[in-house]
Amino acid sequence: MSSAVRWEGKLSTSFAELQGVRQGSVWSPSVYKLFVNPLIKKLESESLGFKIGNVFVGTPMCADDLLLISSKPDELQTMISYTSHFAETEEYNISKEKTKVMIWNSSLNCNLWNQMDKFHIGSETLETVENYKHIGIDRDSREVEATRTIIGNRLKTARQTSYALMGSGLHGLNGLNPEVSCKLWSTYVVPRLLFGLEIVNLSAKDISRLDIFCNNFLKQIQNLPARASNAGAYLLLGQLPIIALLHKKILITFGTIARSDSVENDLAKRQLSTKGKNSKSWFIRADKILKQYNLPCASEVLLKPETKYKWKMKVKKCIDNFWSEKLFTEAKSKPSLRYLNIKNCKIGVVNSIWKSAGSEQMCIRKACYKIKMLLDTYILQYHRSKFSNGQKTSICPLCEEGTEHLEHFLVVCSALTSIRDIFISKLYTVVVPKIGTAAWTDICVSNSKMIQLILDCSRFEWYHVLEKNDINLVESITRSLCYSLHEKRSVLLESK
């Protein structure tokens, strides 16, 4: 085999490759498997290594990373010696610095493991460690489930990634449009957060830690307070909760196992036929997730595996539909989301408030205040009174004519009439030619309908007759109205 280097459009003189595999070639993993397969077959034929039932799982591999698993210390040393001899025969070196020994649940055979003082390759003694990273996944022998270390490191990596992207505007107020931020989040942060977690049995506490991190991030990029509804934050951005994304990875991985003729496939069949529903087996967990989304049970998937594309599309559709209904149900139960048109929210589609805001900083800032009012997190005197258990008055400090709640602030307060009238007249010129005078009059005689027009006009039947430019104009006028009312209120409060 020969190679050459391409530089500035030119090829160097070719040179022979006498050892190793070509870097980056699609054939390299397959070629390496052919090369190392005799070692794996040798260990299996000699019955060296761990078995689950009659399924040999003693030598899992990924690329050139080999893991040797045994429940007996002397057997593990024999496996290491076989591996070392194979390397000498085939003239390649094993990295002594990267080769470590971890002992799990040694208390089960305490005497046996204590007798084996050290493991070695030739004359080199191998270090025994309590934690180690293998193919990017952290393991700790001191933890029963080993999830605390994994989740902690995944969260740390995700935070570091998000902090690194803050310079590009991945933050709240004065940052990027949340539509763009979500794209960066999905492309860079989520893959690092969920890396390897699809093969780990996470506890409810672990999932809660991931969920809190994601909830806080999605609220942060929309400049929302922590008390804002989680359902509202997800629906406005068309995002799925982290548990849904994790379930997608688990089911797609299970589909890959079902299509393959592999040890994992044999192990899946055994575990599903021998383990009970309360087992901690990964395959039992996958079966429960399949049933949760009304997909075929694990045994059926193994019996009749679908193509990669068809399976991914089926999983995506079922999970998206399930969580859409779940988020819709939660949103309907929240009085704070009464003005959000849930029917217009779709997974994967960002709300028109953010879509129409574009990349201009001032438009994004205005949209942030409109979103706060839509989710009822904009602090008015009514909220101050409620949070203080009535110790503070709920009367509007501007006009002193009634309780300052959202309806009063947006459409009633006489101190803000001059600002309000300017933008309502602009709305009239845009909307009336499309919907007619009668529909406009019907809106004007009802405070709740006027608030609906200002915060989310997609709930009206006539919304679908508006063209894209009309929708953008309505959004521009209403977000300017919300921001101008906020500014006017702040100025009047400062003057008192």
Automatic annotation (TrEMBL):
InterPro entries registered for this protein in UniProt: RT_dom
Pfam family, one: RVT_1
First and last residue of the signal peptide: none
All residue ranges annotated as the Reverse transcriptase domain in the record: 1-137
Taxonomic superkingdom: Eukaryota
Coiled-coil zones: none
This protein's name: Reverse transcriptase domain-containing protein
Species: Mytilus galloprovincialis (Mediterranean mussel)
Species lineage: Eukaryota, Metazoa, Spiralia, Lophotrochozoa, Mollusca
